[in-house]
Amino acid sequence: MNVAIIAAAGQGTRMAGAKPKQFLDLAGTPIIFHTLRAFEECAVIKEIIVVLRAEDTAHFLSLAQKQNLKKVAKVVPGGATRAESVLRGLQAVREATAEIVAVHDAARPFVTADEIARTVEAARLEGAAILVSMPVDTIKEIRGGLVVQTLNRTVIRNALTPQCFSYKLLRRAYEEINVSDPALTDESALVERLGVKIVTVEGNARNIKITRPEDLAIGEAILKELGSGQWAVGSKTG
Predict the structure, then answer these.
(1) Domain-by-domain residue ranges, the chain?
(2) How far is CA 31 from CA 46, 125, 200, 233, in A?
(3) pLDDT tens per residue, range 137-149
(4) At the N or C end, where does the chain have fewer CB atoms within 10 A?
(5) pLDDT tens per residue across span 209-226
């Protein structure tokens, strides 16, 4: 069974609002439910585990009743860091039936079912796969406020989510880290430490993480494009 862990336990401090960013409205619907809908519509995902702050659980469940999300199997309380939160989600996965685990940020509502399916399939074949996009800006390495070098844009990618791994591989990666370290914000980095090959799956740069207030405006613009038929939810990306 392929399981999705939706990481939604962050406080969203950069959004500077009283409400966690994943519960902010995007076209009248909380961001987290746009995200969950993509996984609900992805045929290869059979179960969804949502990791939330304990104080947000009741609010989430009250809203979820209206969303007809049949794959949401468990809601578990998050930890003090992203790594600890994802580990708690991982501990809620049924080991006997687990195959591929897809970890996704709740604040990335524009992932498509196709992107999820392709990343899961790549992980099934190789053991580990992450969704990526090509950067559009020139990237500089900076130290002490000075430019050290210009990176070759053709060989670097933006790391997106979902990031997908065999259940046993991801559990092994988590056994070798300190989950209290706030710098551990990427599952791929944990698996990289094991010396495991991680394949990349090209996704769309539209799969943004809503982090700052201006990202909401960008998100509204993306939804208008989706509504106009320029993009179809769950369609293949280019």
Answers:
(1) 3-227
(2) 21, 31, 26, 15
(3) 999 999 999 999 9
(4) C
(5) 998 889 999 999 998 887
